[in-house]
């Protein structure tokens, strides 16, 4: 029994230390990206480039911007919005018919919860 354990252990050690090589099939593009900067995928605290790219593709936003003119905002989840005269109160009108991947409807309460959660987490910087 002990001899079998030594043989098995030696085989595993050899397999782990053996170099591995794979050839790319013809007419195949292989793309790789370094993602070791990901610390969190929580949209309330993500900041690093790779995490931001992932959350930007997984989570939707109330508003988005024109990539050619970043000062121009447009609605994503929000159909429209108003800013109060004091500049401290924002009112968003949500688009109708929006759903989470689960099929549950997206509501204004969900958006408010996400924004409030980011503030309560007190992680800097956090972008939603």
Description of the molecule:
By secondary structure, the chain is of the alpha+beta class. The chain has 3 helices and 4 strands. The chain has helices at about 1-15, 50-60, 110-120, and strands at about 65, 70-75, 80-85, 90-95. The strands form 2 sheets. It has a two-stranded antiparallel ribbon with strand order 1-2. The protein is elongated and about 80 Å long. The relative contact order is 0.12. The mean pLDDT is about 85.
Shape: elongated
Count of DSSP E strands? Answer: 4
Put simply, the count of helices is 3
Strands in their spatial order, largest beta sheet: 1-2
Percent helix among the residues? 25-40%
Q: What share of the residues does DSSP label as strand, in percent?
A: 15-25%
CA-based gyration radius: 24 Å
Essential attributes:
128 residues; alpha+beta; elongated
Please outline what is shown here.
This protein is α+β, with helices and mostly antiparallel strands. The chain is built from three helices and four strands, in the order H-H-E-E-E-E-H.
Blueprint (SSEs and pairs):
Blueprint: H1 2-17, H2 49-58, E1 63-66, E2 69-75, E3 78-83, E4 90-94, H3 108-121
Antiparallel strand pairs: 1-2, 3-4
């Amino acid at each position: 029994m002990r001899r079998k354990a030594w043989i098995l252990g030696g085989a595993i050690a050899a397999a782990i230390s053996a170099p591995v090589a794979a050839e790319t099939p013809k007419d195949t593009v292989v793309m790789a990206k370094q993602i070791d900067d990901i610390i969190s995928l929580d949209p309330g605290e993500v900041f690093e480039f790779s995490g931001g790219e992932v959350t930007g593709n997984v989570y939707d936003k109330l508003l988005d911007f024109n990539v050619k003119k970043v000062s121009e905002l447009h609605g994503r989840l929000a159909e429209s919005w108003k800013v109060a005269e004091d500049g401290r109160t924002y009112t968003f009108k949500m688009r109708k018919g929006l759903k989470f991947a689960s099929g549950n409807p997206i509501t204004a309460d969900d958006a408010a919860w996400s924004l409030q959660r980011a503030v309560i987490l007190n992680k800097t910087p956090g972008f939603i």
